[in-house]
Amino acid sequence: MAELDRYIPGVPCWIDISPPDPDAAADFYGGLFGWEIEESMPEGSSGQYLMARLGGGDVAAISSQPEGAPQAAAWETYVWVESADETAAKVREAGGTVLAEPFDIFDAGRMAVVADPEGARFSVWQPNQFRGATVVNEPGSLNFNGLHTRDLDGAKAFYGAVFGWEALPMGMWALTGYGDHLEKLRPGTQDGMAEMGAPERFEDVVAALTVIPDDQPDTPAHWEVTFGVADADATAARAAELGGTVLVPPFDAPWIRGTVIRDPQGATFNANQFVPETGDTAGQQADAAVRGS
Length: 293
Known about the structure:
Elements: E1 12-17, H1 22-33, E2 36-39, E3 49-54, E4 57-63, E5 75-80, H2 84-93, E6 97-105, E7 109-115, E8 121-127, E9 142-149, H3 152-163, E10 166-168, E11 172-174, H4 178-185, H5 189-196, E12 205-211, E13 222-228, H6 232-241, E14 245-253, E15 256-262, E16 268-274, H7 282-290
Parallel strand pairs: 1-4, 5-8, 9-12, 13-16
Antiparallel strand pairs: 1-5, 2-3, 3-4, 6-7, 7-8, 9-13, 10-11, 11-12, 14-15, 15-16
């Protein structure tokens, strides 16, 4: 039987970042998460695409900025799709914007850069040779992607039309069938979640969903990333040592101890330490999810 991919259409599968200084970003994240950094662009290329790995598995990437791009840094979420062209068309039909038309990345895959109706930017990835992150949910790797929106109903309509996502009450996006796929990859996954006390349909969760509060009028709709860490306090301290800024000091919430960090070039991210003994009632879980934890 052919080996199953970790992802199915509609599931976030990759992240990268394009800061003004890729080498400096590699130093920061390599020092923070222990990433092994390797240039993946062919010799003689004008740009950089630095692959970050843990134990030989792909985690994320750091790339140079396209010419003329704004001098800003933000983590980009990629969603696995069957066809970048068809998904770009769905984005337009649902009221979103195609920021970069579908294009091929050598033989790695085909992608498009898009934005939802509120302007939250993300990319879609039609895989070929590159099949997404191979290390996730481990310290130093991607743990979660999350949408911050002001228009909950609009987001439900858009992401439902484009990816078939459903918004769950606890502040999560679910994709029917994803839990069944995970069960095929790792038998016992669904029973393990039930034993842990995970909320109903947590096995189908593909991303987080947070409504931006009215007291944050300057916060735009956006996608964010959360990295898993072994020790949130140590991660916050190390980030500061490396020149980052701890925006939210380590805090406790159901299932996690988390912190929010801004890297030296301005990109923000969450770092969450899984603490299962703090998981409690469904109400607490919902509160944590709505706050983006």
